[in-house]
Design goal:
Growth Hormone, Chain: A; 2 domains; 0% strand; MFS_trans_sf; cell membrane; 381 residues; transmembrane helix; transmembrane transporter activity; 15 helices; 83% helix; transmembrane
Length: 381
């Protein structure tokens, strides 16, 4: 699935702007609308999974995204491309939170970190292979590339249909929209989600400020090695690094340290003078980001009542949606402001401060979250 996603998304800009001469702003609107649709619907997709079970939502999402990506290869106008993009976003919004809920339901608590890590590794593997396959397929035509991307989700639909058990929702008076209300009123979880907005503001900088810095140091060809290093390190090291962290540290401590590492790495990027130095900082940054995702998922599953896991995962998407949106805007704005004020360290110092503040905020919030051992003791009492 991730391979199909990263195959077609980068090609949209290449095909429609460079190939057909469409305005770059219009393609920016297309990509932004897809992300907005997906992140907005993810909140509700999790709540619906609590009522219907995750499997129907995952299957529907895969089919709808198949149609959306397939349609993109045949559009001839901006309204058609916008509609196809919205369709692809709806598909992603339907399966995103239910996927995490399904993983939580079929794994024991002590195995969840490894499962969420494997999901993240699959995403990074798709990030590496998708664009490479897409670049090759573009020579065969965007239409074929979009159909191959769509077929990845069709294959996922068949695999999920055959292998994923139908997980019946736990009986509760508060499933559906009531589950979202419970998540919103859960003070600890709400604060956890809001504080994580700071992390996602930082995590988007690989696509914004870090990319701009790489181009400044080494030209436009620097973006390939930049993304390959980040995704490649995650594919190779995320699982063993997670196992090492699991054996020696608590989840809450790993999450705080990982966010702190991301902020520190971004701060150090402002001091780089060569592309090699920047890549070293990107490696440090990647060590942090590869630990945050599984830790966030574990803590979300730990805080969620059994009948509202989907709602809690859906609500947690707010941190990515809000933090990512602000990060995309703020990253570019800070780089521009630093240039205008002749203070190039401005964005990097800001990111460092955001990292410190986010880590401190998480440290305060996570003190109220019970450990896995405490949760098991409560369930046995």
């Amino acid at each position: 699935m991730w391979g199909g996603f990263f195959l077609v998304i980068p090609l949209i800009t290449v095909h429609f702007v460079d190939g057909l001469g469409w305005a770059a702003a219009s393609i920016g609107l297309v990509l932004g609308l897809r992300q907005l649709t997906q992140q907005g619907l993810t909140v509700f997709g999790g709540a619906w999974a609590d009522r219907l079970g995750p499997k129907p939502l995952i299957l529907a999402g895969c089919l709808i995204r198949t149609l959306g990506f397939g349609w993109m290869g045949f559009v001839s106008s901006l309204p058609e491309l916008l509609a196809a993009s919205v369709l692809a976003g709806i598909g992603g919004g339907l399966f995103d939170a239910p996927k995490s809920a399904a993983i939580t339901a079929v794994t024991r608590p002590e195995h969840r970190a490894r499962m969420f890590s494997l999901v993240s590794i699959a995403g990074n593997l798709g990030m590496v292979t998708g664009p490479l396959l897409g670049a090759w397929m573009l020579s065969l035509g965007f239409q074929r590339a979009s159909l191959v991307a769509a077929s990845a989700y069709l294959v996922a639909f068949v695999l999920m249909l055959v292998t994923l058990p139908h997980l019946r929702p736990a009986p509760s008076q508060q499933t559906g929209m009531g589950g979202l209300k419970t998540a919103l009123n859960d003070r600890v979880f709400r604060n956890f989600t809001l504080v994580l907005c700071g992390y996602f503001l930082l995590s988007t900088q690989l696509n914004v400020a870090v990319t701009l810095r790489a181009v400044e140091l080494a030209g436009t060809g620097a973006t390939g090695p930049l993304y390959a290093l980040s995704a490649g390190l995650a594919v190779v090291l995320q699982y063993p690094l997670l196992r090492l962290a699991e054996r020696h540290f608590r989840v809450r401590h790993v999450l705080v340290a990982a966010v702190l590492l991301v902020g520190l790495a971004l701060g150090l990027m402002g001091l780089t003078r060569t592309f090699a130095q920047l890549l070293a900082c990107v490696a440090l940054y990647s060590f942090g980001t590869m630990l945050v995702f599984p830790m966030q998922q574990i803590l979300t599953a730990r805080l969620a009542p059994p009948s509202m896991v989907g709602s809690y995962f859906g609500f947690s998407a707010i941190s990515l949606g809000l933090g990512g949106a602000v990060g995309n805007f703020v990253g570019g704005a800070l780089v521009d402001a630093g240039t205008r004020l002749h203070f190039p360290l401005l964005p990097w110092l800001t990111f460092l401060l955001v990292g410190l503040a986010t880590a401190a905020g998480l440290g305060a919030v996570l003190r109220e979250i019970p450990t896995r051992e405490e949760m098991e003791a409560r369930q046995q009492a």
